Amino acid sequence: MSEGVSGVLNEILRVEGIEEAFSCFLIHRQGAELDKISVWVQELQTILQEANNDVLEAALRQVLSVGSTCSYSRLQLLMEVLERLIKLKVLPARLACESIITYDKLQYQNQDFWVECFSLLRRTIDLVEYKGVREIMKGCCEKAKSLPRHLNIGLQPQTKALLNLAERIMDRDVCLLPGYLLANELQKAYSDCPHWRLASLFYDYVDSFRALAQMVSIVGQTEMRPVVEHSGCPEHFVNPWKLDPVTLKFTLTGILPYPSELLSKQTGLLRYVLEQPYSRDMVCGMLGLKQHKQHCAALEEQLVDLVVLAMEKSEQEGVDTQGLWLHLSSQVIYFVLFQFSSFPNIVLALHDRLIGKDLKKGRDQLMWLLLQFISGSIQRNPLSNFLPVLRLYELLFPDDEPPLPVPDFNQSQCTRQMAITCIWIHLTKKAQSEGHPAWSIPPRLRAHHEFLQHLVPPLAMGQDYRIALLCNAYSTNQDYFSKPMAALVETIQGSKSTSPPTAPLSMAVLDSLTVHSKMSLIHSIVTHVIKLAQSKSGVPLAPALVETYSRLLVYTEIESLGIKGFISQLLPTVYKSHAWNTLYTLLEMFSYRMHHIHPHYRVQLLSHLHSLAAVPQANQTQLHLCVESTALRLITGLGSAEVQPELSRFLSEQKTLVSAESEELNRALVLTLARATHVTGPDGNWCTEILSTIAQSTPHAWAPHTLECFPKALFDFFSQNAVARENKQQLKKAVEEEYRKWASMNNENDILAHFGVPGAPPLFLCLLWKMLLETDHISPIAYKILERIGARALSAHLRKFCDSLVFEFSNSPGGQHVNKCVDTINDMIWKYNIVTIDRLVLCLALRTQEGSEAQVCSFIIQLVLLKPTEFRNRVQDFVKDNSPDHWNQVNWHERHLDFHRKFPEKSAPEEQTGGYHPYFGNVCLRFLPVFDIVVHRFLEIQQVTKSLEIILEHLGCLYKFHDRPVTYLYNTLHYYEAKLHDRPPLKRRLVGAVLGSLKDTLSEPYQVYLARDDVWIPELDYYIQLVKRVVDTVSGKSPASLTDWRFNEFPNAGAHILYTSCVELMALSAGPPAVATGLLDVVLRGYTAIPLKEINQWINAVGLLLSALPSSYWTVLHDCLLETIAEMEPYVWDCSPFRLLDFKETHNAMLYNKFSYMLALAHSVWHHAGPGHIASIPRWVRDRLPSVVRSEAQFLMVCHLIGPFFPRLKLLSINVMPELTHSLYELLAQVDHAQSALNYMDPICDLFYHIKYMFIGDGLKNEIEAIVRKLRPALQLRLRFIAHLPIEEINTTS
């Protein structure tokens, strides 16, 4: 075959002698030349038509080899032949073009060959499929590299030929390949332009994608800040804030010319999050730090910056930095302990940063921070790891200063002032253990050292900090450490000769102990509790020890020994030892003293409690009540964002989450699932397995008024799994029959045999009530029967009793009979101690009552709570004499005992044995989670509003002791928004009752509104002030709060201000549309009152607030967006839509622009939104936008709105992005048919290629093809690579 090709080539190159002799005088007939070319092409076609690619490539090289050395006229003939062969498809276009561009003799020195080859490539490249065009472009760039940097006039033809080819490839109207891929290639492979002559072309091409980058960028993203929630941040919450752990840059999709601020390090964001208490889970989530020992230098750098900032703040007069240093020490310990950061690196970086800075006031705090880590880790690490601290000492404590004086050991600050000396003592001890020569104490520290040595003899714990100083200095030296630690332990544990101490160690003392000392103390406490439990001595724990233990558990830096040890070691050991008194105390401590416990531990404990409830020993009335009360608090206390992530881990073993017998706990779990699903917004289908397990364990139904508040998934489940309702008339007959049997039996054994055996009808409480109603007396044998029934089985009796009560009251003649019934119930609770008021009311509130019976049930609850004085008296006394700030008290236990002496609690079957002695709980505190449920049930029935107001008026003061009052109110107003939106007085009453003791946290105008009794519709100024509070708090400008976040329901000031503000907004008289509009108007109308450079912070605050409100509020944004989009038709502005929608440009130019402002607000709201909120966007695009979008500018506005949220939408569900993409194509088709001309086809098509390559691939190939075929040819041409549309079909349709 090569011979045949050679023959044809020889024929082309052959020149007649006469032709050669008279070449300057001959004129060739054009027709004859064309005929010759046709013959040569025909011959080559015959030769090559059956050849494979290897043969064709060899033939091409043969032709090119000849062409590179022949005359210009013959070269032109050869190129003409090649062009025809390519167009006849004898030679595959891609093979031919790639062979030419990669030919090694294609060099700029051979001018004619270079120019003709590039000209041929330009004429034939349209026939190459797009992947081949990419390779040719690469070849083009490689050839450009060979051109000299300095181009003389002689090289202009070669340069021009190469440029012409590159321009053809980059021509957006020709569309030889997806421009998105080419732009990606140019930035990735040729970020350094191959030659300066191509630079302008490359820059302009890449710059044309700025429009796409703008469409997929969040406005003001670099200045947005999240509110850091409780520990255990769910993935969906962290995803919008993820940063690259090496560069600290946003993880942007696609290589696009994003604005420089989006491509820069986001140190401000990471530092902001690090500054927030309880942020370590979010920091790890943001940086993807999942594996221990995953070193992160960027995190290290920010920790150093924060320490330096703290030192600078310490220099300022009147600024309290104690809380900041406590938080920083906790952060440093955690990140260094898990080896995300290196201690020597941090110390050396601090040394370098502090050189030349005269920061003396913060140096003691810095040394205290370092001491925290050194004391706890120096025994496990070599001395060399800690030697950099000496350099820091030399810098901060120069020799030319006078010796450090001994501080006043009566002040807690002395532990900070002597921290450097404690460090020296630890380092000296470590040096001795490693065999180094003895170190001498520096003269500056000698006074401190001598003072500590003189303290070594035994001391008793007093009001000073001497023992804390000794513990901190000698915690690694057992010879000196054991005695001060023993004194510390004896202070809270007591000795055999004295009564158990009641005053715990104060938080000031605990804060003055190093981490190592606190670990030793908590270890001593746990060891003591375990020994006591295993000895079965029955000796109660000292109140001071239990209270101190609970306070130690707030320190996150000792979590492994703290809450982790409590859940996984202490509780199981106490349980195995059958030390029920101790177990009772520990569960009480968990219920009333624990704060910010990671949800994983809480769910784990819930699982333990369900197992515990099944053991025979837990069948005692008090212990059973304690277990159920703790479980109820755990269930109702789960945060809405915590429910799905935490419970999903147990889906394979749902039975551990579900009570086998307690219908009330399972109903509480259903209500928590409903609330969490409603607040966070997912569809709720994830929890159907849990619901099925609940339905199997404790089948139950829900009343219609409760069901209608459920999210759809739960509503459907309970509608499809209906449970037959019991006939109340038959229940009454069964009770009367049992009562007749009781009356007819005289033999005690017969009575016990009938009523006290397992399997007997659960009607004994009904029987006792009837007995009391008719005889005002209970037979002593009844208590024996109650004991045989047991606390666990008595729950079933209580349910029947509640149903019987409702039936009795529903058919009561009223008047004296009702009073008699209530008095009888009261006697059962307070006189005979048969049932506790909290269990009875909980059961009544959770029974399935419909219609008038539901109202009757509410009426009974009101009467039981308020008609007798017993409960009201207890509430009033408890509220009057006690404070919820238990961490600041030293005499809590004394007040607790006073209350129990005045109002002793007894349980009937255990009266003789004495039962358990509560350390923290009482009937008032036990009632709080029940009160929460009662309020919710009353809210569901509009007819009982007055009853609810009366109950809140008398008992609302109890909310002073609620552990999460703002969160509870937020959940209530959020979940029942549809029920409450037209009941402003009730909302105000709820806020006044629940936040009665926290009114100062609300804005001043709202506090005035609470005191008034009229409707208040706030003006714009109110919303501006409210948003300003959020802005100032998030940016750290608000005055430092005295709140100790370790004991607050919220982890930090940002979360606190967000949820208190949301409560306030939801409780306003104005409805959701007015409130949401007011928030949007803060920016849209009030922008003149906002400092120019702070606008993004205000937009961020509006986004935080709106995204945390119910859907009825943020759907107002969707409506406003529809109105704004509608206003873009017709387009009357003399700038492009991209400039109109460029928030930065319009705002910095001080040009008010509703469109860019609405875009920024929408981005802020959606950036902060939860999964349910984000999932509504595709539905909004599909259902609402087609009626509005008609023009190209409107479509571009839609692209700007939703473009940045493709990554989050992709994570939601596998179907979301395809559905949204289909909707966008439909909108484009609608615009295409409505408009005669489209000016921005390239950016629009770039967006669709971005969607294809980044998110959906070829998932919608058929659907897209059907839509693209209906579009105008120019759009078909651009989108043909997505729709897989042959170019010939486009040409025929055009």
From TrEMBL:
Source domain of life = Eukaryota
Where is the protein situated, by its record's location annotation?
A: Nucleus
Please provide an example of a Pfam family that matches this protein in its UniProt record: Med23
Primary residence: nucleus
Arranged from A to Z, the UniProt key words for this protein are:
Nucleus, Transcription, Transcription regulation
Q: Which InterPro entries match?
A: Mediator_Med23
Supply the PANTHER family for this chain. Answer: MEDIATOR OF RNA POLYMERASE II TRANSCRIPTION SUBUNIT 23
Q: Which family does it belong to?
A: Belongs to the Mediator complex subunit 23 family.
Q: What is the name listed in the Swiss-Prot or TrEMBL entry for this protein? A: Mediator of RNA polymerase II transcription subunit 23
Q: Which gene encodes it?
A: LOC108562239
